[in-house]
Amino acid sequence: MQQSKSDVWVGLFVMLGVVALVxxxxxxxxxxxxxxxxxxxxxxxxxxxxxxxxxxxxxxAGVVVGRVESITFDDKIFQASVTLQLQDRYAFPxxxxxxxxTSGLLGEQYIGIEAGADEHNLVPGDVVIATQSAIVLENxxxxxxxxxxxxxxxxDSSK
Length: 159
Description:
Layout: H1 2-28, E1 39-46, E2 57-60, E3 63-74, E4 79-87, E5 97-102, E6 109-114, E7 127-128, E8 131-132, H2 137-152
Parallel strand pairs: 1-7, 2-6, 5-8
Antiparallel strand pairs: 1-4, 2-3, 3-4, 5-6
């Protein structure tokens, strides 16, 4: 009888540990966000989103003010359409601009908001046009190599 009671407690403790590990794994992979605050949705259009993923952070001045809700491709204008869920307590002017930034050199990507100066704020359903696409490291390297190769070609090749 005593051994079966201790077996139940050990089993419960192990189950609690497994649940805690799964929770931490999902939280660290940004696959689980527990946010009980209401918010409003706005959409932004980008030419290139790089490695941006749903549930990525939306930050302003380094503070998380929302999350990326979904990413779709608009085949009429050939741009990525990113839906953002911003927290209600943060209001941004309509002329705010959005950039896709990277945490560190090779870290995860997030969206940064730079507030504008318009008197009117973004409302649910607005589309932000002032966007800056992600910087793709491979494109920068190839552009650098192309420029270096072009510098090595003599201007007068007839000699």
